[in-house]
Amino acid sequence: MQIININDEKYPKLLRIIKNPPKKLYVEGDVELLNKDLFAIIGSRNYTEYGKNQAERFAKKISKSGIGIVSGMAIGIDTFAHIETIKNGGKTVAVLGSGFNYIYPKENRELFNMIIKTGGVVISEYPPNTQMQKKNFPRRNRIVSGLCLGTLVVEATYRSGTSITANFTIEQKRKLYCIPNSIDNKNSCGTINMLKNGATLVSKPEDILKDLGVLNNKVQINKKVDNIEFVPNNKKSKIHIDFSNCDDISRMVVSIIQHNTGIDTNMIAQMSKLTIQNINSILTNLEIEGLVENYAGCKYRIVGDYNV
User: In this structure, are residues 48 and 185 in contact, taking their beta carbons and an 8 Å threshold?
Assistant: First the structure.
């Protein structure tokens, strides 16, 4: 593991100029990759088959052009972007929201090792013994976009960590791209909102490559890897989390969802006697942390097995 301070020559140049850059980075893998041409591909954990196919399609073409692919190593679209890049000889960067001794999600420990083995790099602003905490993931997302020339959003619900990364992309004056999807799909709510607010619609990888122009700091492509056996485990493992240090309101909302699977926002508000605005804020934090998930458009359920 290397530790890179913000004033070090190896510190990523694009990341240094964002608002509130991390003062130091903990790095495993090829540190030189952090100053190559990089592009982020992100999307929903609760992906659709369409989203998976598009993430792989764009990651394959963009990475084969010599651009490194960045994502957050989360289950879902992030994982598919990392793996497809590796399969096609590209280099990929994963940004963690925890320390190296607490890889999250645990299912992606094998992917962590694979990224490093194939010439990629994994980074975190958190010391190795930092455990997963919900507040770390929105902060992590500024690094994902901050490393990159632009960001592609494959799928996103209306309130999600993906949307947070998209907002950072705009704030950092980087290019934001979205893939069109069915307006009836809940995973298109976020991308539709981004398109309304100025993101660029793309239908093929060449749209992005043309828009980025000719780049001179490309990564060296490996030979195509045909024997990757890693298969993402997209089933949520049972995670036991103690809410004793969380506020009472969050614990109450989790308890309501736990005992009323499939409940919607309005019913949560009625049962908790909180406003819709308060509930939306709490649900956003719980979704980012991966404790609850939105499905069927507006219903909520618990992801893991929690001690509240």
Answer: yes
Four-point Cα dihedral 72, 78, 80, 84, nearest 10: -50
243 pLDDT above the threshold of 70: no
Is it true that the peptide bond before 22 is cis, omega within 30 degrees of 0? no
Question: Look-up: residue for tokens 């736990």?
Answer: 258
Enter the CATH code of domain 2-212.
Answer: 3.40.50.450
Amino acid identity, residue 228?
Answer: I
Do residues 72 and 97 touch, judged by C-beta distance below 8 A? yes
Q: How far apart are CA 186 and CA 297, in angstroms?
A: 5
- Cβ atoms of residues 42 and 77 within 8 Å: yes
pTM: 0.73
Q: Where in the chain is the domain with CATH 1.10.10.10?
A: 248-302
Alpha-carbon gap, residue 26 to 218, rounded angstroms: 23
Overall CATH class of domain 248-302: mainly alpha
